[in-house]
Amino acid sequence: MATEFHNLHDLRQGTSLATKVFIQRDYSDGTICKFQTKFPSELESRIERALFEDTVKTLNSFYCEAEKIGGQSYLEGCLACATAYIIFLCMETQYEKVLKKISTYIQEQNEKIYGPRGLLITDPIERGMRVIEISVYEDRGSSGSSSSRSSSAASSTR
Amino acid sequence: MHFGVGEPMRQCEYSQINTRSSTPMESPYNKGTLRRKWQTFPGRNKFYCNGRIMMARQTGVFYLTLVLIVVTSGLFFAFDCPFLALHLTPAIPVIGGILFSFVLGTLLRTSFSDPGVLPRATPDEAADLERQIDVANGSSSTGYRPPPRTKEVNINGQTVKLKYCFTCKIFRPPRASHCSLCDNCVERFDHHCPWVGNCVGKRNYRFFYMFILSLSFLTIFIFAFVITHVILRSNAAGFLPALRDSPASVLEVVVCFFSIWSIVGLSGFHTYLIGSNQTTNEDIKGSWSSKRGKDNYNPYSYGNIFTNCCAALCGPLPPSLIDRRGFVLPDTPQPAPPTNGITMYGATQSQSHMCDQDQCIQSTKFVLQAAATPLLQSEPKTMADERPLPGRTSLGEPCTSLPLGQPTPPTSSPNLSCEAELLSHVPETHHHFLTPEEAPSPPGMLPCGSPLGHSHTMPFYNPASQDSLHEDSVRGLVKLSSV
């Protein structure tokens, strides 16, 4: 029973959540926000390694830009200090601007690349910037056995 | 006959109710009242203005700070400024006013903002981590507690250990620490400051620093000009008449005199910390001290003081990760409740009521853990032995209050190696002592007295030997005995 997926909403209607893959943070460069580019084994059959790595690397570069300490952030910091930080009530910080860009990028990736492959990326900001959560959806009709397998695995861990 | 007529109607009613309230979560939403995330926040924080303002639970000392600053400055503007503006220059009240508003602005900003709290892990994340840990440990965890969970990371050539937080169910990022008073993991945790009624962490450290710096200037300013005022009056009329004419000056001088030592000392200390890009927590533990080893250095430092200062004060301000004012949606995964490592795959629906049932759940879990785990382990029990039993605990008794769960208590500074810094630490050690009823223990249990004695009983913290589960099980048993 193959269902045509026209958008993410349709995707979820005809499928069930099989598992969630978590891409953890990479702290080798310190406390800056950076995610591991290691390709998880659960996604091996679902998406090409290059596409996945490209997504994570782009996200990492966005976060690097957000946390960059340079002219813009100094100006923002000094201006904010001079106005006793009241300016933050009216102005959007550099970080917030980049977060919006990230959100748009993730949405775009979901629609173009991950959605059609039955995957869904959750914006890391919704998980406290700890992980990139990738939900793996299975087609309800074709994967009755795999979903029952995953549910029995869940019950055995209890 | 009567029942025959009524029953089909009743049956219709019953089936209607069933479909509507199939899960306990749905009933609040059908009424049209969605709860905001701050209302179900699992930490021990207080929220005001519908989630816009976030503070620690104990705010008494914060009000004291406010009162001291406002009253002293108010007296200065009311009694000393008119004379000084007339006899010296009107710039004095203007500068004083600017300093005062800056102090207040930064204080409120520090106290009301999110210090950088890390949200707790969702059940899926927690389960995934548990699975990874089991694989790493060889999955031989049956019955007894699992070994302490750490991950090692190499940062700029220095090996840093990331610890697992049993309460938040995450591996803490480097420089993050769990605040026992607020029961949250905070990024780049500096310390918990009762004077501002909040933790000081990544997001509000610069406000805190500007607050203490501007307060130093303000106290020195007021002190200097009050002395000037009294001297000028004494020249005209004599010392005692001068004091009689402006009695407020005496109070101001006394307050400022005592404040200057602590505030200026604290500013100096934090200036040093900023310059070397360390947190109070790291400095107290001597994490990057050369005494630990020849190759021990701070991997987060940028190398020069100027860059470190700029990074700390003018770096980008990260957004709050906890989204206080967002709405709790039916499909939003709620954070997993803290356990001792046993995977509890509870339904996400029940966790939305965590805020209400938190105390009950926590206490019950501690009791269960206590029953499940053996009390006597081979760990060094200097802390556990000195725990008093409930019933005998009173506010006056020196009590070894142990920070809840996690190692690295923020304000315990028992072994300050540098005596010169002791003075600046005094307000910080007092921080912990000034909130004696703030039980750093499971909610509703063991109100501990002023823990003056506890600083001497805690040796230099060795995080590797800390076992929060052990502490939890001990606490659970004590609770059990008090029931």
Automatic annotation (TrEMBL), chain B:
Compartments where located: Membrane
Reactions performed catalytically: L-cysteinyl-[protein] + hexadecanoyl-CoA = S-hexadecanoyl-L-cysteinyl-[protein] + CoA
GO terms for biological process, alphabetical: protein targeting to membrane
Superkingdom classification of source: Eukaryota
Region listing for Disordered, in residue ranges: 377-416
PROSITE patterns associated with the record: DHHC
Family statement: Belongs to the DHHC palmitoyltransferase family.
Full protein name: Palmitoyltransferase
Originating gene: ZDHHC14
